[in-house]
């Protein structure tokens, strides 16, 4: 059943899930892809609906919600909310939580819905993809969505690219953001720094310190890139006879760049240590699940 659902997860997703923009009401057949025998369009009391606790979206813009609520007051909720029945008078929202929240603010008592029979896996996958295709996700929220599609649903980056209609390089670049410290990712989520800022400090030893400075001083992306470059130049100019104070030799720019590319490819932190023609590569994992994922990518059995 999951495979069949995936066929409609690409360009046809907007028709399946509906949209927040006012438009003509979509028919049951258009949305469900069937004749409505197993699911259909209806109106339900708004209190019958409940949010999906595994909803990937964390942040809802309050101003945008107020604007949507005003539109709903004036013209009603024209697009249905996709739900599945989970009990008597209980329906879980699969897609459309933003509309549901706005409808509550607008004082609406009933909302149009489309009820579909979906497995837990399909609900999660649809919710992730639906959120990714929205325009107001932060870069790190989008990256986490891609990571879940890859890890939980075993999609390749190429498959994810086809599903969401974005280039593979776009997906790869966003996944690299997840190698940043969690506090820096949180700053991206809160809008304190942009994706451009975050990309400039990927792999930097003091990424959090620079991110904090960006937020407090209002540095532009170009200023951030110059700051990072200046730090690298200083490191190159400082004499390092025999290595650093800790006894370790400084890594050159090519090695650091390769570490970034490998980290993006495996989705985990990769460190390269080499001496002359020999060396070693180490991969850090945060959990046994990540170790299993790495083993799977390398074609060996995990735990």
UniProtKB/TrEMBL annotation:
Domain ParB-like N-terminal: 42-132
Stretches for region Disordered: 227-252
InterPro entries noted in UniProt: Chromosome_partition/occlusion, HTH_ParB/Spo0J, ParB/RepB/Spo0J, ParB/Sulfiredoxin_sf, ParB_dimer_C, ParB_N
Keyword annotations: Chromosome partition, DNA-binding
DNA-binding keyword on record: yes
SUPFAM superfamilies per the UniProt record, alphabetical: KorB DNA-binding domain-like, ParB/Sulfiredoxin
Keyword Cell division: no
Gene3D superfamilies: 1.10.10.2830, 3.90.1530.30
Pfam family, one: HTH_ParB
Function recorded in the entry: Involved in chromosome partition. Localize to both poles of the predivisional cell following completion of DNA replication. Binds to the DNA origin of replication.
Family under the similarity heading: Belongs to the ParB family.
Name of this protein: ParB/RepB/Spo0J family partition protein
Species name: Kordiimonas pumila
């Amino acid at each position: 059943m999951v495979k069949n659902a995936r066929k409609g997860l690409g360009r046809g997703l907007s028709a399946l899930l509906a949209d927040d923009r006012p438009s003509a009401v979509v028919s049951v057949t258009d949305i469900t892809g069937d004749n409505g025998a197993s699911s259909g369009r209806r109106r339900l009391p708004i209190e019958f609906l409940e949010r999906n606790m595994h909803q990937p979206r964390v942040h809802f813009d309050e101003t945008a919600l107020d604007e949507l609520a005003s539109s709903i007051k004036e013209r009603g909720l024209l697009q249905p909310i996709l739900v599945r029945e989970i009990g008597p008078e209980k329906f879980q929202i699969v897609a459309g939580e933003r509309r549901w929240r706005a409808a509550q603010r607008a004082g609406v008592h009933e909302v149009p819905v489309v009820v579909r029979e979906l497995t837990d896996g399909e609900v999660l996958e649809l919710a992730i993809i639906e959120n990714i295709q929205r325009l107001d996700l932060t870069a790190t929220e989008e990256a986490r969505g891609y990571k879940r599609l890859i890890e939980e649903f075993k999609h390749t980056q190429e498959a994810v690219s086809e599903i969401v209609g974005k280039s593979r390089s776009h997906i790869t670049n966003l996944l690299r953001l997840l190698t940043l410290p969690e506090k820096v990712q949180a700053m991206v989520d809160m809008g304190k720094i942009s994706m451009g800022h975050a990309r400039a400090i990927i792999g930097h030893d003091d990424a959090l310190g620079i991110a904090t400075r960006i937020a407090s001083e209002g540095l532009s992306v170009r200023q951030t890139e110059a700051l990072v470059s200046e730090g690298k130049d200083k490191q190159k100019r400082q004499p390092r006879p025999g290595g650093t104070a800790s006894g370790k030799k400084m890594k050159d720019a090519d090695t650091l760049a390769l570490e970034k590319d490998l980290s993006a490819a495996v989705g985990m932190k990769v460190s390269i240590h080499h001496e002359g023609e020999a060396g070693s590569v180490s991969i850090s994992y945060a959990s046994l699940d990540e170790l299993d994922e790495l083993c799977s990518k390398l074609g060996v059995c995990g735990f």
